[in-house]
Amino acid sequence: MRQKIGLFLCLALLLTGCSYQTKTIRFGAADIGGMYYTVANAYAGLASKESSDLKFEVKNTAGSAANLRLLSGNYIDLGIAQADLVRAAHEGTGSFSDNRQQGYRAIAGLYTEACQIVVRADSDIRTLNDLQGKTVSIGKVAIATFQNPEGLSKKGSFYYGAAESDNSGNASATIPGGSTSSLMTGYLEASNVDLAKEFSDMITTQRGFQANSKIITVSDEILSDLINMKR
User: Fold this and answer.
1) How confident is the model at residue 112 (pLDDT cuts 50, 70, 90)?
2) DSSP string spanning 159-222?
3) Stated pTM of the model
């Protein structure tokens, strides 16, 4: 089953420009392991070979809509986005109806996309309407591993990132369930909890509760004294 859709991928650039001679160009892609991330890295590699003055930092983002918001906010200099979202963001329609995004322009179209929806030959799905009431899997969460995890840069809390200047090596995205990684639902990763911070917050909350309790007690005693004086 084949359905053509009018989608384009475009490269967007801030109107204020990105003076690549004086700084690194921040390139918004999407999740690691996805098509946008691959295209962004390939483009950055080719452009850097053409000119030694060009330096890119490919950013892991949430995709097209996020790239347009990051461009408008001057957090990135280049970004990949679908053509329909570029227009919607500029005109303030669709998902951008309450948050219009401007300050960027499309400088290149990458390709026209033809969407192929394929099912098994023995499937009872013949049209898109047959998908109603069924659960559709749209992909899997990728897990990235690095040659040297100790070389990652600490971004704050328990978050780490990789940059060209880091010694972490190249990222290798794999599907969970292999020999190197796995995902479990209903579990809380221990590393996501800062015990020292949690204890500090608990003590602060406890002290605040005790102070409020004393204020109530003092207020009650003052009120009782006033009543006794009136009598």
Assistant:
1) low
2) EEE--TTSSS--EEEE-TTSSS----TT---GGG--HHHHHHHHHHHHHHHHHHHHHHHHHHHH
3) 0.44
